Amino acid sequence: MKTTKALKNLHWFHWFVVVSSLLLTLSAWYISSVQLQKKQEAQFNYQADLLIPLVKDRMRQYETALWSGVSNYQSHDNQVSLTDWRKFARSLSVEKRYPGINGIGYITRISRTEKDAYLAEQQAKRPYFKIHPEHEGDELWPIQYIEPEATNAKAVGLDMAHENNRITAAKKARDTGRAQATGPIILVQDVKRTPGFLLFSPLYDSAAPPETLEERRKQFVGLVYAPFVVESLMQGTLHNKNRLVNFRVTDKSEILYDELTEGTKNYDSNPMYSKTVAVPMYGRTWKFTIQSSELFRTVQASKQPLMILVAGIIIDAMLLTLFILLASSSKRASTLAKQMSRKALIEQVKLKGMLEVMSSGVITFDSSNQVLFANRSVDTILGIDHSELVGESLSLTGFQYEPSQQSVFTPKGEQIKENTVTQITIKDGTFLEVTLTEHEVGGTVQYVLELKNIDERVKAQKALAALRKEYS
Questions:
Q1: What is the DSSP letter of 430?
Q2: What are phi and psi of 470, to 5 degrees?
């Protein structure tokens, strides 16, 4: 009852101060939360956008290796022996330079009537060579060479025409003159039986792919190809060590690679961010589903918005409690109310000061006035893109360092000495508090210029001075 009566006795000005302080607290909390969310989202998009180009770049390197195999055949008038192919494969150092690729091979095309003569020719040097598995098609597309053969023995003689996925991609490479990939398959040489695919590059009688479909089919000789186990490809390209995102790759409804499982390092079952990107990949479309990881959540975690909210609520509660205490004494109510109003304004100024500290601009430069670093707050304070300042002269900001006087001079000629706090105004009338300090980094002298926007502080000081004058 006493508390209720005390609340009723509070002056409207007390409520105004408490509500205003609460609104300021909520505004600061909201702005800080939004800024944190934007920062987190930007970091996620940056990490996600790095991932796909790495995969595409690695695939382009593998494609280049296949075209080098085509060139090798053409340089031998399309007549390459097993010995020649082994020399070529060794020169590529496939296992060292191309992690994820199981080998590099050559596929020929023969008619069924040519099968016996072809087998006799191959078995003269390799008695174990055979075309498999059997099928009823008119054409045979056997793997003639594959190196290293020891780890790909089951693939020697494998006929692409026995299975629709393989032969479709092989014929598409022949007809387009471009590298083509199969859909997801299980490689016969993969003991783990995990998803994989084949990449084909066509070989013609002519140096360049013929211009028409009819000519391409007529001059077609064979295919240089590479088998891939997708797990090995991704581990060689994007090893999951301290990575901030995890991802899954699918081809239509089939999973090629999956890190979005409970057993994956840093997997987050409830990710903060997620996106899906469709990527054309050598005649196929791979869908990348990318999610933020547990490590991302840990790195990006921040209690700053919560701290601002809690600190503001504590201040508001203290204000309300003090106002209630003031209301309990009618004789001293007016005097105490005036004092608490002043304190309330001071607390608001302090809270604004917290935001000012977070928005300070920092520029690091050397004795030759070359900018070494500038943070993002410089964009807002000086209206200059901080990323464009690095490596440029400090004079682009309007400031100039004079080593002989150990001071920085403003465009107006104002002097800012080392280890002093100087208040200036810039051309748009903004009040700045500027501090210059000297540091030694790695045996080199560097200078730090801190720029703090104090517009709100100046306004608050003027308001406080006016209030004190009013109640004095």
A1: -
A2: -65, -40
Cis bond before residue 403 (omega within 30° of 0):
no
Instruction: Return the closest-CA partner of residue 102 out of 236, 232, 231, 227.
Output: 227
Q: Which domain holds residue 416?
A: 361-462
The maximal CA–CA distance of the chain, rounded, in angstroms, is 119
Count of the separate structural domains present in the chain: 2
pLDDT tens, residue by residue, 252-293: 989 999 989 988 888 898 999 999 999 999 999 999 999 999
Q: Taking the CA atoms of the chain, what radius of gyration do you get in angstroms?
A: 36
Q: Is 223 helix (H, G, I), strand (E, B) or coil?
A: strand
Tokens of 275: 């996106």
The residue from 200, 234, 268 where one domain ends is: 234
Let me know whether 92 and 229 are in one domain: yes
Distance, in Å, from the CA atom of 50 to the CA atom of 267, rounded to the nearest integer, reads: 19
For residue 435, what is the domain's CATH number? 3.30.450.20
Distances, alpha carbon 429 to alpha carbons 63, 382, 425, 436, in Å: 59, 12, 6, 21
For residue 79, give the H/E element and its range: none
Residue carrying structure tokens 């996600």:
48
In a domain, 71, yes or no: no
Q: Which residues pair with residue 374 across a beta bridge?
A: 363
The string over 225-242, giving b where at least 16 C-beta atoms fall within 10 Å of a residue's C-beta and e elsewhere, is bbbbbbbbbbeebbebee
Does one domain contain both 224 and 370? no
The DSSP H or E segment spanning 19 is: helix 12-75
Q: Is residue 458 part of a domain?
A: yes
| 127, burial (CB in 10 Å: exposed 0-12, middle 13-18, buried 19+) | exposed
Place of tokens 């930007």: 42
In a domain, 271, yes or no: no
At 259, give phi and psi (nearest 5°).
-105, 0
Structural tokens at position 43? 């970091």
- What is the rounded CA–CA span in Å between residue 400 and residue 411? 8
φ, ψ of residue 440 in degrees (nearest 5): -110, 120
Q: Is the pLDDT of residue 445 over 90?
A: no
End-to-end Cα distance, the chain? 35
For residue 440, give the 3-state DSSP assignment: strand
Domain contains 53: no
Counts for the chain of helices (H) and strands (E), in that order: 14, 20
Residue in 22, 42, 32 with CA at minimum distance from that of residue 296: 42
Which pLDDT tens digit goes with each residue over 350-401?
A: 444 443 445 688 999 998 899 998 888 888 888 888 888 999 998 888 899 9
* Domain limit, last residue, from 176, 203, 234: 234
Name 366's bridge partners: 446
